[in-house]
User: What shape does this take?
Amino acid sequence: MAKLQVAGDAGIKAVRRQRIWQDYLTMTKPKVVAMLLLTALVGMCLAVPGIPPVEAVVLGLAGIGLQSAAAAAFNHVLDRRFDAQMARTYHRPLAKGRIETHKAVVFASVLMVAGFGLLWMLNALTAWLTFASLIGYAVVYTVWLKHATPQNIVIGGLAGAAPPLLGWTAVTGQFEPHALLLVMLVFTWTPPHFWALAIHRRDDYAKAGIPMLPVTHGIEFTKTMVLLYTVMLALVGLLPWLTGMSGGLYLAGSTVLNLGFIGYALKLKFADETGHAWATFKYSIWHLLALFVVLLADHWLMVWV
Assistant: This one.
């Protein structure tokens, strides 16, 4: 009987350890970090005509990933009270009290320092730019912009648009205009992506007192802005081809993807139906992933053909 009790206790402890591990992983927003790392990797590959140095890729992706995970964890800490009020986020580890705040701060700080150290081994420019992006998202956006203006996601989106530039500088150690074009793509993509989610979760944001655009200016106005930004994204999407950074494969692929996004935005504005804002949000995620995959495929085609 005692042996069964011991085995049961061990099993309970193992389950608890697994849940704690999962909670810490949740705080890093792994899906978001994975998408950021894809854009950073594309930036690395486009920075050089051939294959980027292995050291730059490994240290760069590890450092950018750790800093991005740290920014996400700090976001959980700083937004824990608002998260507890929203249906989308009430189950998060800090909002539910499953992880103590001071432990989350230590966890985020360790990730931040480790990421900075790895990037410093590459070059100071990438280390400081990545740290600035962390501060931009975790502090400037989360603490101030998010609660100060309905243009929060437009201004704060610059921090989330930085990974392609960070990947580029990790390899080259310097700013270049083509890297900024990649930043412009993500920067222009961010508002319609997030506003589609904000339309879907409008009541949540209103309940939490967060001045997202659908809350302050109404859903119809937000739909118009989503449409305008998708059109703007399509125009910005031509720049890599117009500047000679990318070729015909990118032009064809990005055109199809951007027209698809405009199509979703048009339906959202003029023929909306239940669940379409959420469908638009989900399409925007695949849109960005596919856009950067096409960028990379076009680059390799131009290099090797």
